[in-house]
Design goal:
heterodimer; A: mainly beta; six-stranded mixed beta sheet; globular; B: mainly beta; seven-stranded mixed beta sheet; four-stranded antiparallel beta sheet
């Protein structure tokens, strides 16, 4: 059973068109939920950590939120340089590894 | 945060040979991980590198094929042994300062087996 599911798989936005990416998870106890950005040919770049439901983190045009079953990455007025694949990962209380979703490929069109 | 240096960044290898990938972290970390990423796909965990003991491998990955060393808290190596074209992929090193914090990644090693 998949522990982390991301949607949509791909998203095309016009510059300035706000939207949200979803990450739903099924773990028995959440130690942390993590958002990453990955550009082609590079390793994932850390964005945010969320630890408990209700928590929110912001960085420039990005805002991450967390509930008991899912997280959203809100992108406000995106720019072409926001184009990348966004990955979500969770870490359980019972283990040390990270479980990654399959990612959302975001394209922002000028 | 931690800065991770991984080398080589890319290599083209003959089938049947082995390649060792090195991962150096600029600070002492608790956890180190090795991932494989096929083009356009997400990350698949190969193993957790344990300092001073044998690595913990995920289902589908075995020590004979992917031996891992971690002699100290800042360095690890992954060897891809007896390579076949199916081993062509991007291999990523990752490290986490504590069991509660985020993981940081190296730039990856793009391996092509011919």
């Amino acid at each position: 059973e998949d522990q982390v599911t991301q949607s949509p798989e791909a998203l095309r936005l016009q510059e300035g068109e706000s939207s949200s990416l979803n990450c739903s998870y099924t773990v028995s106890g959440l130690r942390g939920l993590f958002w990453y950005r990955q550009d082609p040919g590079k390793g994932p770049e850390f964005l945010f950590t969320l630890y408990s439901a209700g928590e929110e983190k912001e960085k420039e045009r990005l805002k991450a939120t967390l509930t008991k079953k899912e997280s959203f990455l809100h992108i406000t007025a995106p720019k072409p340089e926001d184009s990348a694949t966004y990955l979500c990962a969770v870490r359980e209380n019972t283990g040390n590894q990270f479980y990654f979703g399959t990612g959302t490929s975001l394209t922002v069109i000028p | 945060s931690a800065v991770i240096s991984q080398k080589p960044s890319r290599d083209i290898c003959q089938r049947g040979t082995s390649l060792t990938i090195q991962c150096q972290v600029d600070s002492q970390v608790t956890m180190m991980f090795w991932y494989r990423q096929q083009p356009g796909q997400s990350l698949t965990l190969i193993a957790t590198a344990n300092q001073g003991s044998e690595a913990t491998y995920e289902s589908g990955f075995v020590i004979d094929k992917f031996p891992i060393s971690r002699p100290n808290l800042t360095f690890s190596t992954l060897t891809v042994s007896n390579m076949s074209p199916e081993d062509s992929s991007i291999y990523l090193c990752s490290a986490s300062l504590t069991v509660n914090t985020e993981a940081f990644f190296g730039q990856g090693t793009r391996l092509t087996v011919v």
